[in-house]
Amino acid sequence: MHYGYEGRVAVVTGGSSGIGLECVRTLLASGAKVAFCARNEGRLENAAAVMARDFGEENVLTRALSVLDAEAVNAFAKDVEATFGQCDLLVNNAGQGRQSTFADTTDDDWRAEYELKLFSQIYPIRAFLPMLKAAQGSIVTVNSLLAYQPEPHMVCTSSARAGVQNLVKSLSVELAPEVRVNSILIGMVGSGQWTRRFAEREDQSVSREEWYGALAARKGIPLGRLGDPAEAAAAVAFLGSRAASYITGARLEVSGGLSRHI
Ligand code: NDP
Fold this sequence. Notes:
Blueprint: E1 9-13, H1 18-29, E2 33-38, H2 41-55, E3 60-64, H3 70-84, E4 89-92, H4 107-135, E5 138-144, H5 155-174, E6 180-186, H6 192-199, H7 208-219, H8 229-240, E7 251-254
Parallel strand pairs: 1-2, 1-4, 2-3, 4-5, 5-6, 6-7
Helix pairs in contact: 1-8, 3-4, 4-5
The structure holds NADPH dihydro-nicotinamide-adenine-dinucleotide phosphate (NDP).
Residues 13-14, 16-20, 37-40, 43, 66-68, 93-97, 142, 144, 186, 188-189, 191-194, 229 line the site of NADPH dihydro-nicotinamide-adenine-dinucleotide phosphate (NDP).
């Protein structure tokens, strides 16, 4: 699918794997120039090489950094401006979930989780905001259904995700009319996090399809399967595109119907 990003520049945090990597691919395929970051240099270089091969080296920029390093994020924004001259879309995707109940979440876990969830938004938004304003651009946050439908075994992730939704809503007002701010809410998408959990499964004789199918059934996902990262990327590309020009402060669920709230 082509989302009409010719002449536009997108930045994707956590672009070396899973949903972020599919966002990079979808945006490049739709005509954008794309800058993306992640911490692990080797994985980032591999992703960059594939994207440069498929979409042209001149359209791809990568930097190895943590989004929790404010100075590195600021330098990344300067590099994007120097290389591409603008930023029309910021996709705040970097991160991961933490599995723990209230009983087994330590104070340090709480602090680390809140730092990751909130500052992975705050630092990139602050760094790219001048360019986003100049371009009348938009921000899309990759958030989780847990923000509205918390799970006891992911207690601090759920709570921090709710805070992120609240921030997105505030920003959609404060940054209007120059910058639109929206989020997608992921249910369960079969990306890096689930690949890792599958690799660590108790019964190693169970196949990927069986394990994913049983997981979807156990969770009661009406569409009967986990989502594909490309399906999440499609929602991101739509919200960042001109087709969504009157949409801000909105959330789009990508959950196969898993959400139970109205
Ligand atoms: P992946 O593990 O496949 O990808 C995560 C990406 O983020 C990687 O590129 C990783 O690279 C990068 N990353 C992680 N931490 C940082 C950091 N501090 N700074 C920069 N980059 C970072 O996961 P998903 O694609 O599944 O997840 C994408 C987003 O979607 C995450 O925020 C996740 O929490 C959210 N989500 C996913 C769900 C799912 O079912 N898949 C459910 C709900 C939410 P590296 O490790 O090299 O830094």
